[in-house]
Write a structure and sequence with these properties.
The chain has 196 residues and is an all-alpha fold. The chain has 2 domains: 44 residues, Homeodomain-like (Arc Repressor Mutant, subunit A), CATH 1.10.10; 134 residues, Tetracycline Repressor, domain 2, CATH 1.10.357.10. It contains 10 helices and no strands.
Length: 196
């Protein structure tokens, strides 16, 4: 083996450190997890962990940004899709949020657990509020178009719809059939449980 191949710290890149950190934050809680805990989980010394990442807050920011960026991109894609009426846009937004949750389950789980205790958490909560308002606007437009019932407050409807999606972080396990889950959620949300 050449000298060049032996250099560096094998086995861990920033993504693998982030993945392990998110698992640990979700298991123990962000506040209860130290960089020493993360180093032990990775089999590194406490000082060696800083070779890979600058801080615990940086890891949190990277994780919640992953979830928020994916949600924002999904909504942007729905908004940019031509030929959809307001009801179809809302249905696509719900479906997209299911796909994002499944594809980024650990990061979304962590995002849903932040409480605003740090600047990173406060920024994440602000971005979540912006997404909530975008979704509420989609609900309002769908109600105005007659695609969904209009007698419920749009922000409440939005929170109930996406609360159903977000609740999947509590029971969903790895490797589900993403399309089947997205179909079930959108069918339940828009067609209900009543037999037709």
């Amino acid at each position: 083996m050449s000298e060049r191949a032996r250099r560096g710290r094998p086995g861990h890149d920033q993504q693998s450190v982030l993945r392990v950190a998110v698992e640990l934050f979700n298991r123990q809680g962000y506040d209860a997890t130290s960089m020493g805990d993360l180093a032990r989980e990775l089999g590194l010394t406490k000082s060696a962990i800083y070779h890979h990442v600058p801080s615990k807050e940086h890891l949190l920011e990277s994780a919640v940004d992953e979830a928020l960026d994916a949600l924002t991109a999904s909504l942007d894609e729905v908004g940019a899709t031509t030929g959809l009426d307001a009801g179809e846009r809302l249905r696509a937004a719900v479906r997209g949020s299911v796909v994002v949750l499944v594809d980024h389950l650990p990061a979304v789980t962590l995002l849903l657990r932040v409480r605003g205790n740090t600047p990173t958490e406060q920024a994440a909560l602000q971005r979540r509020r912006e997404i909530d308002h975008r979704l509420a606007e989609m609900v309002r437009e769908a109600a105005e178009d007659g695609a969904i019932r209009g007698d419920l407050e749009p922000l409440l409807t939005s929170r109930l719809l996406f609360g159903m999606v977000n609740s999947m972080t509590e029971w969903l396990r790895s490797d589900p059939d993403v399309q089947a889950v997205a179909d079930a959620v959108t069918t339940l949300a828009f067609d209900g449980l009543a037999r037709r």
